[in-house]
Amino acid sequence: MSELRFVRLGFGEDSVEYQEAWQKQREVHAARFEDTVPDTCLLLEHPPVYTAGRRTAENERPLDGTPVIDVDRGGKITWHGPGQLVGYPIQKLPRPVDVVAHVRRLEDALIRTAAEFGVETSRVEGRSGVWVLGDPVEERAALGGLSLDFDPRLQDEEFDPRMNGPEYAPSNAGQRREDRKLAAIGIRVAKGVTMHGFALNVNPDNTWFDRIVPCGIRDAGVTSLAYELGRDLTIAEVLPVLEKHLRDVLENAALAPRAVAPTEAAVPASVPAVEPASAPAPA
């Protein structure tokens, strides 16, 4: 069992600028590598900001030229801002690091947190993060009065929801009863120590996501605990619940190195990075 320290950096009027939090992550990461601090999870809220992981495509960024911060995590583009509870677990893991297992642990803690508030969530195959599953396609209402057979997203890989009206907006996925992401995950591992982490939508203005292609996913959307519950919910209410489940999952995990195949062991490999959105994949 490993001790987990929580540091609440700032919320609401004291929300933390992204670059400031990124620098704090670097400092704690260096200290954790040197074993001068225990595993540490930074918890905070950011002012509105778009961040792009290494896999972000140019056509997924805001069309209006809104500034985007390019970061060293895996995955694609996402948004952080008021009403979103962000966590950066900085944890030393046995090498070679099992990135997938780390992502799964974060998902477990977030799924348990949502469940405690009465929101049922799940994983989606090939997509990291925590999701509220939509209705089966055949049970969903038609888009724009047309049969779902004519939904352009089913036929056009280049379909851009940002240019096709609010009925396709990621923030309206709940109304369409589609799969929608409640929490995004995106990490980086350096020297066996994790950085970056997760973003849980508590009660944000999800229309911020409509300016981008969130995590590069065009056929699903985003949601929040407040939307799913149909009532207001605050960061202050969710924070202690999230801390409880993070502590339970991360402190009690049986950490093990990633299994290395004989051929893999002979060739040095870089550790994959993951981001806000799917298991060791995009966001």
UniProtKB/TrEMBL annotation:
Residues 35-254 form the BPL/LPL catalytic domain. CDD domains: LipB. Transmembrane segments: none annotated. One of its GO terms (molecular function) is lipoyl(octanoyl) transferase activity. It is an enzyme of class 2 (transferase). The keyword Kinase does not apply. It comes from the Bacteria. The keyword Phosphoprotein does not apply. It is found in: Cytoplasm. GO terms for biological process: protein lipoylation. InterPro entries: aa-tRNA-synth_II/BPL/LPL, BPL_LPL_catalytic, Octanoyltransferase, Octanoyltransferase_CS. This is Octanoyltransferase. It comes from Streptomyces finlayi.
